[in-house]
Design brief:
globular; 10 strands; alpha/beta; 223 residues; Rossmann fold; seven-stranded mixed sheet; binds 5-O-phosphono-beta-D-ribofuranosylamine
């Protein structure tokens, strides 16, 4: 972004495998950014163990300390404002955000969702793909808007569901084969200023994306 390293905040709730992938890509220079904060709503998030060992600045904002969604989101917004992020990557963050929060960070806020959006919004996406007899499954990076899992899609990685894929195996394939590739790539594009949120639309290299990018669009370093 403008030739200087973008300021990246990563917001987690759990294991932090996407956080690891983002950190690896920052560390080896594929993402021209500095991770200015790892924020978790859970003090026991496994991802925090990794983040601390990696020397990343960590903040816990425990949602249980706040009486309602709006006050938690206010605390989260204050924490983020304190680190002045150019990009906020939700990475396994398991809270629904209020419209006020989303509007405050709109255009800087990315999420990764474990399905081929718009299919299977919400939770239990792998079970849903099997239940519905889907032929393909995968993950999607999208800009966050007030519509849950409904913001403009940036990149989607897909694969064919195999006869022996159960929900656990699908979750593993989605994480290892898709999420860990497409999220660092999307954040890299954003950090370079090649990906923007423009009046409600995802724009890539100056053009609105009618369809999300795909695994074929990954640069060699992200494959
Ligand atoms: C990922 O599948 C992500 O798409 C979903 O939650 C999972 C988080 O995993 N929102 P991790 O915390 O990055 O390991």
């Amino acid at each position: 972004m403008n030739g200087t390293a973008a300021r990246l905040a990563v917001v987690i709730s759990g294991r932090g495998r996407n956080l690891r992938a983002l950190h690896a890509a920052v560390a080896d220079g594929r993402i021209p950014a500095t991770i200015v904060a790892v924020i978790s709503n859970r003090a026991d998030a496994e991802g925090l163990v990794f983040a601390r060992e990696a020397g990343l600045p960590c903040v816990v904002v425990p949602h249980r300390d706040y009486p309602d969604r709006a006050s938690f989101d206010g605390a989260l917004a204050d924490t983020l404002d304190g680190v002045k992020p150019d990009i906020v990557a939700l990475a396994g963050f398991m809270r629904i955000l209020t419209e006020g929060f989303v509007r405050a960070f709109e255009g800087r806020l990315l999420n990764i969702h474990p399905s081929l959006l718009p299919r299977h919004k919400g939770l239990h996406t792998h079970e849903a793909a099997l239940r519905d007899g889907d032929v393909e499954h995968g993950a999607t990076v999208h800009f966050v808007t007030p519509q849950l899992d409904g913001g403009p899609r940036v990149i989607q990685g897909k694969f064919t569901i195999g006869a022996h894929d159960d929900a656990a195996r699908l979750a593993e394939r989605v994480m290892m084969d898709v999420e860990q590739r497409i999220y660092p790539q999307a954040v890299a594009w954003m950090a370079r200023g090649e990906l923007r949120f423009d009046q409600g639309v995802a724009a890539f290299r100056g053009r609105p994306l009618a369809e999300p990018l795909s695994l074929d669009d990954l640069e060699p370093g992200f494959r």
